[in-house]
């Protein structure tokens, strides 16, 4: 290797020594030093050789050209190893200060020398990405976990084997959603499983292993920090295999790790472990440098093209033809189910709407668990898993398909089970037994021990009573035993075989009475003379007589000898038959001799007298042909055709306008029917009404909250009538309407007054949203006023904001009964209202807020954020908003405020006229309150050091400047003036600078 003459002479070569006098002195100094060492050194030959080279050294070093050529040659040698290391360190695109420090110590070069040879940017020290720096759990517990998992797989024959505690806790609890759960949730499930196995009390080897693994879950999932250590261990295990591959390639040949395809393949595998192609590249570089392998990286563009499957994390290069992951079979491109935005593998929440897309990864496991539950006909468990799957990934095709399959299986099974239970409810156990056998053949796996036991027990008991009936000749005992057998099993075929020779006598003397007003029929008859437990079977039929128990509609089974039929239609001809029924045997019937018909009147009548008008509405009964109305003065007509007929175009209402105010009129409304031969009028609905001039509707002036739920309302005096308040279910206004008392009570709820005067009242409101309707009550009418909504929706409390990691975090306390808020912000002023089109709107549920403990959105440096939070309450599908709670978040960039002061004073005046012009580099912002301070001879440094002369109020800027004019008393001759902000915290947002401070003084 060529000698470095600079080093031999003790001279610097970076920068190189060029002073010939210094070089010549160094040569002579070394000559004397080496001559001495030839006599005293144990290796005199070395220094003799150096002395012999001095002439050559002198010739080279004292000639500028020769010295420069020598310098170029030795630089290649001296910096060769340094340049090689710098090249390797530079592949990541930067070199850190700590790496320069290490090179300086290793080679002895100063930092400036090293920095001159660096071709990439030099950065501050970055956070360590070394896998060695990540904390992992205690190795002892890790070995115990691995041993227990190995033993568990042997006992359980798990396929595929369970390799992590995550897989274990999901498998043992049958909860796929725990795959992405928090440490707290994992620990709670492990504790629950431990307690379950302790209750079982089975001390098998397998159960001991399970309890050990649950206990280890409790330890490793104590908190998120410990859980992260376990995650680091699992990641490290995956990296070990990749590191081994790198070692194999690096040790075999220096060329292996410079091959682009090979390195790209390794970076893809690393990406699947560390979930970032950029971090994977960094991990690869760090490991190769640590092992001193020669390597070369693929281009940045190629590395950045690496994507990961959203579900299984497998790395791939996007291809238009590849739309399904080859590993897990899920789509490679995933759109947010809520807003359709495409997100990448690194996102846990949708970057647009914040939907928690990370839970979509759990859907596959939930669908697997649902399918396993369906195989066991465990519909409830399957439905629970599918509900979660649909919540995590709405509209997923696989979930939809399983839900459809569940519906088919459940319907098929439930229809059959429903029929089975209906037979059991009717005590038809003989048929139920055959139905149960059919179900078990149709739906494999169905079993219900309680139903099977109930069927067998009742059939067995019935057969015992039948055996007793067959063993006696006494008619009374036979009937009694068969009746008891019938009570146990009503469809046992042997009961009829025994009783067919003992018929039951029919009831007699059936009569019917109709109540036209109520539209009901009352039936009465004489009891059967037969002994035993006799029940009466009542059958009804239209137009013709029922001849058998199944010929018509069964309306009742009665033990007594009378029945009230309330389910009749007016104008319909009914015939009735009553059969005696004993132990499954029917008698011959007793029947009505003629048809039973009801002629019902109108119902739900509403009467509204107005000025020179009476309006009536009603509900028309079914089967009516027409309506007839007659009128008399002072009292209602007695029957149809009595009085003056009123023409009625509508079948359900009429308005009589041929009336005078304050005169009473009587009416009768009759319904016309046909009894099959003749037209028949109903008895008629009779009423009276008095038209009058209604008062003007009342309008509420103001409603004020007194305290708690108590409010006070005021209104202008009214006459005639009395003011009452009612609650409406909707915001619909019927101001000025005149309504009847029936309609008032039907549509509105009365609000009792706690106290009242002719123009005010106090009352209590309970609901969050109330629609208050003022009503003027008069003897003949009620006049509806303008409705007013009163909202008790509470506002958020303790609203604060902060900036963290380039995000704005808005925190607050939720008011009672509120589960949704709406956050709006602008950068120029507060939002006008909740629908401000210029504001950014962020609706947030309490559940979404709970996941982040804040409302988050992007922060833009230098911007000011004017934020409004509205509480949202939902009632009757209507969103009601509270008042806005406002908050201003200040940007980190200060606004510069420049000001100028102009003074003038008359010759004999004792007051100065002052004009201050202020301008700001943020034209739309509002300047805070400022004060003008004066001090004798010297400008004040703080506002407390002088006399406050005036206060300049806060105000918005217009065209970047604002002018303030005012006067103040003349003080000292030489008073220096200066502006200050009234509040010290305003200096966080603004810098206040005088344009011409030397002129800001009094004369």
Topology:
Layout: H1 5-8, H2 20-40, H3 44-62, H4 64-78, H5 80-89, E1 94-96, H6 97-107, H7 111-116, E2 121-123, H8 139-156, H9 165-173, H10 183-200, H11 205-220, H12 224-252, H13 260-274, H14 277-291, H15 300-304, E3 307-308, E4 315-316, H16 363-375, H17 379-392, H18 397-425, H19 429-442, H20 449-470, H21 475-488, H22 493-499, E5 508-515, E6 520-526, E7 535-542, E8 553-558, E9 562-565, E10 574-582, E11 585-591, E12 603-610, E13 613-619, E14 626-633, E15 644-645, E16 653-656, E17 665-674, E18 679-681, E19 685-689, E20 700-707, E21 710-715, E22 722-728, E23 738-739, H23 741-747, E24 748-751, E25 753-757, E26 760-764, E27 769-777, E28 782-784, E29 788-791, E30 797-804, E31 807-813, E32 820-826, E33 840-845, H24 846-852, E34 855-858, E35 865-875, E36 878-881, E37 885-889, E38 895-904, E39 911-920, E40 926-927, E41 930-936, E42 947-952, E43 955-956, E44 961-969, E45 975-981, E46 990-994
Parallel strand pairs: 1-2, 38-46
Antiparallel strand pairs: 3-4, 5-6, 6-9, 7-8, 7-10, 10-11, 12-13, 13-16, 14-15, 14-17, 17-18, 17-19, 20-21, 21-26, 22-24, 22-27, 23-28, 25-26, 27-28, 27-29, 30-31, 31-34, 32-33, 32-35, 35-36, 35-37, 38-39, 39-44, 40-43, 41-42, 41-45
């Amino acid at each position: 290797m060529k000698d470095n003459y600079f080093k031999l002479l003790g001279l610097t070569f970076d920068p190189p020594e060029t002073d010939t006098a210094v070089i010549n002195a160094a040569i002579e100094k070394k000559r004397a030093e080496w001559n001495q060492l030839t006599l005293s050194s144990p290796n005199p030959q070395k220094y003799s050789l150096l002395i012999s080279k001095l002439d050559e050294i002198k010739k080279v070093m004292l000639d500028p050209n020769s010295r420069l050529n020598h310098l170029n040659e030795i630089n290649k040698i001296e910096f060769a190893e340094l340049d090689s290391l710098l090249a390797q360190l530079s592949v990541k695109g930067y070199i850190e200060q700590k790496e320069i420090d290490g090179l300086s110590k290793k080679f002895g070069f100063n930092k400036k020398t090293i920095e001159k040879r660096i071709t990439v940017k030099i950065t501050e020290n970055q956070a360590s990405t070394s896998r060695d720096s990540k904390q992992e759990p205690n190795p002892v517990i890790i070995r115990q976990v691995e041993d227990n998992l190995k033993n568990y797989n042997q006992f359980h024959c798990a396929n595929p084997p369970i390799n992590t505690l995550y897989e274990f806790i999901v498998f043992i609890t049958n909860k796929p959603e725990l795959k992405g759960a928090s440490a707290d949730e994992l620990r709670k499930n492990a504790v629950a499983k431990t307690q379950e196995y302790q209750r079982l009390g089975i001390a098998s080897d397998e159960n001991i292993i399970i309890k050990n693994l649950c206990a280890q879950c409790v330890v490793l999932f104590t908190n998120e920090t410990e859980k992260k250590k376990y995650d680091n261990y699992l990641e490290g295990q995956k990296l070990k295999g990749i590191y081994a591959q790198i070692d194999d390639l690096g040790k075999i040949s220096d060329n292996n790790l410079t091959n682009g395809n090979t390195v790209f393949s390794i970076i893809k595998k690393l990406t699947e472990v560390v979930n970032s192609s950029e971090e994977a590249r960094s991990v690869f570089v760090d490991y190769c440098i640590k092992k001193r392998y020669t390597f070369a990286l693929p281009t940045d563009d190629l590395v950045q093209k690496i994507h990961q499957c959203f579900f299984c994390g497998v790395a791939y290069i996007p291809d238009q033809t590849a739309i399904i992951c080859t590993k897990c079979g899920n789509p490679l491109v995933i759109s947010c189910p809520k807003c359709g935005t495409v997100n990448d593998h690194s996102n846990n929440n949708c970057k647009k709407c914040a939907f928690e897309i990370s839970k979509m990864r759990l859907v596959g496991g939930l669908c697997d668990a649902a399918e396993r539950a369906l195989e066991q006909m465990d519909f409830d468990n399957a439905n629970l898993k599918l509900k979660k799957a649909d919540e995590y990934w709405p509209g997923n095709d696989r979930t939809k398909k399983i839900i459809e399959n569940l519906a088919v299986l459940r319907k098929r099974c439930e229809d059959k089970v429903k029929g089975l239970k209906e037979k059991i409810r009717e005590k038809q156990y003989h048929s139920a037994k055959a139905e149960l056998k059919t179900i078990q053949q149709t739906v494999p796996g169905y079993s219900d021990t309680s139903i099977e036991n109930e069927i067998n027990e009742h059939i067995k008991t019935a057969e015992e009573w039948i055996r007793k009936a067959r063993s006696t000749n006494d008619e009374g005992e036979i009937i009694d035993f068969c009746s008891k057998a019938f009570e146990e099993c009503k469809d046992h075929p042997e009961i009829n075989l025994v009783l067919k020779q003992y018929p039951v006598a029919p009831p007699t003397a059936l009569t019917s009475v109709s109540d036209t007003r109520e539209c009901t029929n009352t039936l009465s008859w004489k009891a059967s003379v037969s002994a035993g437990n006799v029940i009466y079977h009542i059958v009804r039929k239209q137009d013709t007589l029922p001849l058998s128990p199944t010929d018509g509609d069964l309306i009742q089974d009665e033990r007594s000898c009378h029945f009230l039929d309330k389910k009749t239609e007016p104008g319909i001809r009914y015939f009735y038959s009553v059969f005696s029924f004993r132990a499954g045997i029917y008698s011959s019937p007793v029947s009505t001799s003629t048809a039973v018909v009801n002629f019902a009147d109108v119902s739900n009548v509403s009467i509204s007298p107005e000025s020179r008008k009476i309006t009536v509405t009603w509900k028309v009964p079914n089967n009516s042909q027409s309506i007839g109305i007659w009128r008399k003065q002072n009292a209602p007509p007695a029957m149809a055709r009595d009085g003056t007929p009123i023409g009625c175009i509508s079948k359900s209402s009429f308005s009589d306008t041929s009336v005078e105010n304050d005169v009473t009129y009587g009416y009768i409304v009759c319904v016309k029917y046909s009894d099959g031969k003749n037209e028949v009028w109903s008895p008629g609905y009779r009423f009276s009404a008095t038209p009058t001039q209604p008062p003007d509707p009342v309008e509420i002036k103001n409603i004020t909250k007194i305290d708690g739920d108590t409010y006070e309302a005021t209104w202008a005096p009214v006459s005639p009538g009395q003011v009452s308040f009612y609650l409406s279910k909707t915001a619909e206004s019927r101001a000025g309407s005149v309504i009847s008392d029936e309609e008032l009570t039907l549509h509105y709820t009365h609000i009792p007054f706690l106290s009242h005067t002719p123009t005010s009242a106090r009352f209590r409101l309970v609901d969050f949203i109330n629609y208050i309707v003022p009503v003027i009550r008069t003897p003949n009418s009620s006049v509806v006023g303008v409705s007013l909504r009163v909202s008790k929706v509470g506002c958020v409390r303790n609203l604060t904001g902060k900036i963290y990691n380039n995000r704005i975090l808005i925190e607050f306390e939720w008011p009672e009964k509120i589960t949704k808020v709406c956050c709006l912000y602008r950068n120029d002023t507060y939002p006008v209202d909740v629908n401000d089109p210029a504001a950014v709107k962020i609706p947030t549920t309490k559940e979404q807020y709970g996941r982040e403990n804040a409302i988050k959105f992007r922060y833009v440096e230098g911007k000011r954020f004017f934020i409004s939070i509205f509480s949202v309450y939902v009632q009757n599908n209507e969103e009601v908003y509270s008042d806005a709670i406002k908050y201003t978040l200040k940007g980190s960039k200060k606004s510069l405020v420049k000001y100028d002061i102009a003074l003038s004073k008359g010759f004999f005046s004792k007051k100065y006229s002052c004009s201050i012009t202020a301008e700001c580099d943020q034209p739309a912002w509002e300047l805070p309150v400022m004060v003008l301070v004066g001090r004798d001879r010297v400008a004040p440094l703080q506002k407390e050091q002088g006399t406050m002369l005036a206060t300049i109020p806060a105000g918005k800027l217009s065209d970047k400047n604002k002018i303030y004019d005012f006067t103040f008393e003349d003080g000292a001759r030489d008073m220096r003036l200066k502006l200050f902000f009234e509040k010290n915290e305003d200096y966080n947002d603004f810098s206040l600078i005088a344009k011409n401070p030397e002129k800001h003084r009094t004369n």
